[in-house]
Amino acid sequence: MNGYCLFEAGKEKDLIKDNTRIVNINGREIVTVDEFIHELARQLDFPDYYSSSLDSLEELLNDLSWLKETQFAIVVRNYSFFLCEEKNPARKTNLLGLLNDVAEQWDNVPNYPGEEDFRNKAVFNIYIEKGNIAAAELEKLNISYNEVK
């Protein structure tokens, strides 16, 4: 099942399988939504036409056809600092929900008739280093997560 996973520091390598494109995010360095989108664009080699809007981000995360890997993992460390300077709190909330939606959509392919002709089901997980803030934020948004020991 795709989605959010909270992990103990140092255990993420045990969770991620071969042929996985890993996006490493350090919450101390990525403190706004725009910085996060830019970093995803860099690490996932987004096409030139991407923009920093959440709509564009969702479209590209639901494609990823330009990548050779067939599994995807976003790994966030230092979550207590992640997006801490975002001036619009709703953007962080929307981003967390968007990532959850993208994970579900990859898990549920086909989401509509004919989708399986160009997109296969894939693993798409968001791994967050354990801490009270991450669990509380996800619970507040009614986003389920797995705890990995």
Automatic annotation (TrEMBL):
Superkingdom as given in the UniProt entry: Bacteria
InterPro entries linked: Barstar, Barstar-like_sf
Pfam families documented for this protein: Barstar
SUPFAM superfamilies assigned: Barstar-related (SSF52038)
Barstar (barnase inhibitor) domain location: 21-108
Recorded family membership: Belongs to the barstar family.
Protein name: RNAse (Barnase) inhibitor barstar
Taxonomic source organism: Pedobacter cryoconitis
